[in-house]
Specification:
Shape: globular
Structural class: mainly beta
Number of helices: 11
Oligomer: single chain
């Protein structure tokens, strides 16, 4: 009986067990007792075959490598690999409420939505509403045996979402005994990145070894880290260079400097925020007025630099998260039982609860409320008199409401997943058929609370305070009839009769009752479900016919899957009472029926110039209830002209159907930041802008007030089609006999996505209105509303379209060597290198001349590398790992983008970091592992916050220690 198990098991690396390896570079073909070549299942194919016959390159990372990373989330561990972006890790998701606390993978930097995550070859329920984004931290780390990563389209094998690749997490099975695991890590530099976890795994056989049951439990905690906790942060930003004389003058247009803040808004309050220098007033903590200092250089209308500091200015970094606080509990069990010699029943379930706290900026008002100078009950009397002497009776006011508390994310995510099935084989005639029939149900329930939001209408009422003549105390005008005047209307929208006068001057001077009356929490609940049933069958044609290289391998199967996502917002927020836009409830669901077939054709084997010549092909048909039918296919070739050289390649078409958010989210309001393309600083960025801005009525020399958010109305598109991609990989595996224990793999990859589903950003809508050739684009201009008096953008409408194209290509290489230097112990080397040759985003594929070049920019370096060396002697093992990130541009490298003169410095220099760890086997059943990550405390430049988005590729924390302990009984 050939081992044709369809359950994915770990690909064994005889040379580099536990090290990262591009498989099957060093894999050795196993033979059974009869001398027959053993065939196993690997990620990327449903046909079991000799290990070296897999045409698709696979990166594998083992449990030992995960433990030695010293990182608190699995997404960050994978992001150490050049093929995986860091944008959706625990740090990368730190500016999102719906994805707060999630850790996901972004293969080839084409987006986490295009990376399919499997557990033991099967899909996993999502963690974020409306998406297929899997939380890797919901997979119990104590049970992980191996993670296999296939980069490149794999939809023909696994279905939708596998556009950029597949991550398959393979879990341990049939565990016997009791195992205790503990891990701890923290910064050595006082940053406060404490994280720890501990867990147990217990398993036992039953019924004379026919079955096994395993239980596991794990508790982990990650401490919250704010940007101000980092040593290098100092409110860095960009300012206009006063020495600049124009384009191409050899002088930098903008400079990067510390202490870039805003004197026009403050947690202590600002009077006359839109005034000129010398007329902008703030308050000390007690509410006593003082003038804001004057800026040195200007970033924009709202921000400037203050080299000597500014005690009461606003700094964005005061509210920036680096790590959210995450407390996670996981419990579950696996079970399998041999119903017969040929049939195994299996099941597993798990429950994961995560409590997440993450900070966002507090609510604010930026000049859109006014103070009645004559009557306000709390205004500093000296300032009152000064304003009245100048004839000012009403003045604009701005404030960040720190005293209400940050708009924190206080979320609870609960995930349940159950899988059951039978797998085994049966024989018809003389042919063995391997089968797997399975069912899975998964559900994620989120309770997402945004704390301390402002009720703007109530604040307007509470801000309009007067002295009540009857009591002599401060009261809301709405509560003092004698102060109201003719035609007065109470501005409050919630419980107006309970208004409490609010003192906004200084910090924390408003009463607790006033703070409560002007603020509220927002609660959203998400329910995400996934269930599917499927089956697969694999066999070969040995009984009927064989090709010169052997029997044809065939796998076929089906799957039916249902996905749904629902988000319900509390009635208070739904009514639009808060600064968060009035968001309607959303619901979407779809189902898909899929069928697939895969064949492996061993054309030649063991002949001259063809030790192996195998052709693979796969085809999958899918019918989506919301997006119609799709086809995915691929062909692959493995050719070994010599025993030591194998040439491999795959080419195919992959698909991704629109997710629930993209297809079903309702049109709802929100906010966006838009840099006005008609502003005097931006109008020269496109040759058509000046004439088009004039055509829509913009005045010459227009200066926009665009450092504040504008209203956004956006939603899903039920008419979206699946996006399609073509993917090519081609390379070779070289295992020379004359270099003992050495292998090299080099692979070229090329992925092109057409009709890509993308959200058309508010900025793009505004730009495309005035960047069109031949006059304004009326379709986009109709989506932009402007204030008829100030001409500022006030509202943008947007949504999802099949409009974009994405392309990437590059070369990835892996070198493994275990030299025999006639020394005691074992020495192993591993080098993984990626050269990104192209990563381009065409927001509108019908405008190929307007391309956004990403390769070489921040987050997408042209070169990345990872080198590791292991030395093991008796009970000791020492590992050294170094990572390299190439110099990256802070400027836009697109053809119509920036030049190095536009920003100084224009590049972040290359970064090299080093890790070292040591493992000691205390006994045969216990070991301890101690290590230092970022040994030399190498930090990115201080102006790189390294939190969120592209900057999360860098380590902003610096040196940290970690230790792992494991004991088995």
């Amino acid at each position: 009986m050939k081992n044709l198990s369809l359950l994915a098991i770990s690909v064994k690396s005889a040379l580099f067990a536990g090290a990262v390896a591009t498989m099957p570079a060093m894999a050795q073909e196993e033979t059974n007792a009869e001398g027959e070549v053993e065939r196993i299942q690997v990620t990327g194919s449903r046909i079991a075959r000799p290990e070296l016959s897999q045409p698709t390159p696979i990166i594998s990372i083992g449990q030992e490598e995960i433990a030695k990373s010293g990182l608190p989330d699995l997404g960050s561990v994978l992001a150490d690999l050049p093929a995986v972006g860091a944008t959706n890790t625990l740090v990368g998701n730190n500016d999102s409420n719906s994805a707060a606390g999630l850790s996901s993978a972004d293969l080839r930097r084409l987006g986490a939505s295009r990376t399919l995550v499997l557990v033991d070859g099967k899909r996993h329920v999502a963690g974020a509403p409306g998406s297929a984004q899997v939380d890797l931290n919901a997979i119990p780390s104590a049970l992980i045996q191996t993670i296999e990563i296939i980069t490149g389209g794999a939809s023909a094998i696994y279905g939708s979402d596998a556009v950029s690749g597949v991550i398959n997490v393979i879990l341990r099975k049939d565990y016997e005994g009791l195992e205790f695991n503990a891990q701890y890590g923290n910064s050595t530099e006082g940053v406060g990145t404490e994280n720890y976890s501990f867990g147990i795994v217990a398993g036992a056989d039953m019924a004379d070894g026919r079955g096994n049951v395993t239980f596991f439990a794990e508790q982990s905690n990650v401490a919250e880290v704010m940007a101000n906790d980092l040593r290098q942060t100092s409110a860095w930003g960009t300012v206009t260079n006063p020495e600049d004389t124009g384009e191409d003058d050899g002088i930098a247009d903008r400079l990067t400097v510390p202490n870039v803040m805003s004197e026009r808004i403050s947690r202590n309050g600002v009077i006359n925020p839109f005034g000129s220098a010398g007329s902008i007033w703030t308050f000390n903590n007690a509410g006593v007025a003082e003038l804001m200092p004057e800026r040195d250089m200007t970033n924009s209308f709202a921000f400037g630099s203050f080299p000597d500091g500014c005690a009461y200015c606003f700094s964005t970094q005061d509210y920036e998260n680096v790590y959210p606080a995450v407390a996670k509990t996981t419990v579950g069990s696996t079970f399998n039982f041999d119903l017969s010699d040929n049939v195994n029943l299996y099941s597993d379930f798990k429950y994961v609860r995560s409590d997440i706290q993450q900070q966002f900026q507090p609510s604010f008002r930026f000049g859109n409320v006014s103070i009645n100078v004559e009557e306000n009950a709390f205004l500093d009397n000296n300032l009152r008199q000064s304003l009245l002497d100048d004839g000012v009776t009403s003045v604009r006011f701005s404030k960040f409401f720190d005293e209400l508390g940050n708009r924190s994310a206080d979320n609870r995510r609960e995930l349940f997943r159950f899988v059951t099935g039978t797998q085994g084989f049966f024989t018809l005639s003389e042919t063995d058929f391997d089968f797997d029939v399975y069912y899975s149900y998964g559900r994620t329930d989120n309770i997402r609370k945004t704390l301390n939001d402002l009720i703007p209408d109530n604040f307007v009422a509470a801000l309009d305070s007067v002295i009540d003549p009857e009591t002599g105390k401060a009261a809301c005008r709405s509560q003092v009839a004698s102060a109201q005047g003719e035609g007065y209307e109470d501005p409050a929208s919630v419980n107006g009769a309970d208004c409490v006068a609010y003192n906004p001057f200084g910090l924390g001077n408003a009463s607790a009752e006033a703070r409560d009356w002007v603020s509220a929490d927002v609660t959203r609940t998400d329910k995400i479900t996934q269930q599917f049933v499927g089956g697969s069958l694999a066999f070969d044609t040995a009984e009927f016919f064989s090709l010169p290289g052997g029997a044809v391998g065939i796998a076929t199967g089906f799957e039916y899957r249902e996905e749904s996502s629902e988000t319900v917002t509390d009635e208070f927020a739904k009514a639009g009472f808060l600064t968060t836009a009035a968001t309607p409830d959303s619901y979407g669901e779809y189902d898909v029926t899929e069928g697939f077939v895969e064949v492996s054709l061993p054309i030649l084997a063991g002949v001259f110039l063809a030790e192996e010549l195998t052709l693979d092909a796969a085809y999958r048909y899918a019918d989506y209830s919301h997006a119609g039918s799709t086809d995915a296919w691929k062909v692959g070739l493995m050719w070994a002209p010599l025993e030591e050289l194998r040439v491999r390649g795959t080419y195919g078409q992959a698909v991704r159907a629109p997710n629930i958010t993209e297809a079903f989210s309702p049109q709802s309001p929100g906010f966006a930041r838009v840099s006005d393309p008609c502003d005097a600083d931006n109008i020269g960025d496109d040759a058509d802008r000046a004439s088009n801005c004039a055509a829509i009525g913009m005045p010459p020399g227009f200066e926009a007030n665009d450092n504040v958010s504008v209203d956004l109305i956006s939603g899903g598109n039920p008419n979206l089609m699946p996006e399609e991609s073509t993917s090519l990989t081609a390379g070779f595996v070289w295992t020379p006999e004359y270099i003992e224990n050495f292998s090299a793999t080099v692979d070229y990859y090329d992925i092109e996505i057409e009709d890509a589903i993308s959200f058309i950003a508010a900025q793009s809508v505004a730009d495309n209105c005035v960047d069109a050739t031949g006059g304004p684009d009326l379709n986009f201009c109709g989506q932009v509303d402007r204030d008829p008096e100030t001409f500022d953008i006030t509202l943008v409408r947007s949504g999802y379209l099949n409009a974009a194209a994405l392309t990437t290509r590059g070369i990835e290489a892996q070198f493994n060597w275990a030299p025999n230097f006639n020394i005691d112990g074992n020495l192993k080397f591993n080098l993984l290198v990626n050269h990104l040759m192209e990563l381009e985003d065409f927001e509108f594929q019908n405008r190929p001349d307007e391309v956004n070049v990403e390769d070489g920019e921040l987050g997408d370096p042209s070169w990345q590398g990872r080198f590791s060396a292991d030395y093991a002697l008796n009970d000791w093992k020492v590992t050294w790992t170094t990572r390299f990130v190439d110099r990256s541009a802070r400027i836009d490298l697109s053809p119509e983008g920036d030049t190095p003169e536009d920003l100084n410095p224009a590049y972040v220099g290359s970064i090299i970091t080093h890790d070292i760890s040591g493992t000691y086997n205390i006994t045969d059943n216990a070991y301890i592992d101690v290590g230092i990550r970022n040994l030399t405390d190498k930090l990115p430049p201080a102006y790189i916050s390294a939190s969120g988005s592209n900057e999360s590729i860098y380590d902003a924390v610096g040196r940290r220690i970690f230790t792992n302990f494991k004991v088995r009984f």
